[in-house]
C-alpha cells in the first residue's frame, strides 16, 4: 500500500511508463522504484539529488547514462534490461550494490574486473556479496561511519534478507580497521624508504 511507504519513497512500478523525463522530486526522495515499465532511457534523475536507492529493473534501457548527478546513490538495480555494453564511467562511485543480471553486458570480456575496478565501495554485484581477495584487494579511504551512512534500507527488489545488511555492517567495521592498519603500515614503510634515500644522498654528497 502506498500509504505505508515513507515520504522519502516514490513507487511507480508496473505503471506502463515509457519515459521519466517529467518526473519531479517531491522533496528529499531517497528511494525510487520504476521497475517493470517500458522505460528506454535513463534521464532527468538530477532532480533527485538525495537519491540512494534506484530500481529500473525489467525495462527497455540500452545504455547506462545520466547517473553522475546522483552522488549519494548506493543501490542500483538495472537487471533485465537491454544493456549490451557497460560504460563504468557513467556509474556513481558511491555505489555499494549493483545488479545488472539479465543484461548482455555481463558477458563482455573482463566485465567483473571492470566493475570492481571502477567502484571502490561495491559490496554486492549481481546479487552476489563480494568477499575474499577480490574485495580486499581494492583500497578505500572511507571510514566506518561513512560506510554505515550509505547503506540502503533493507527493502526493495534485491533478493537479500535483513540479516544481510547487518552482516555488511559487521564486515565494514572489520574492513575499516584492516584498511587503517594497512595504511599505517604502508606509511611507515614509505617513511623508512625516504629516510634510506635521504641517508644515501647525504653520503654521496660527502
TrEMBL record:
Keywords: Cell projection, Cilium, Coiled coil, Leucine-rich repeat, Repeat. Residues 177-204 form a coiled coil. SMART domains: LRR_SD22 (SM00365). The keyword Nucleotidyltransferase does not apply. InterPro entries: Cilia_flagella_integrity, Leu-rich_rpt, LRR_dom_sf. It comes from Tachuris rubrigastra. Residues 130-153 are annotated as: Disordered. Pfam families: LRR_9. This is LRC46 protein. It is found in: Cell projection, Cilium.
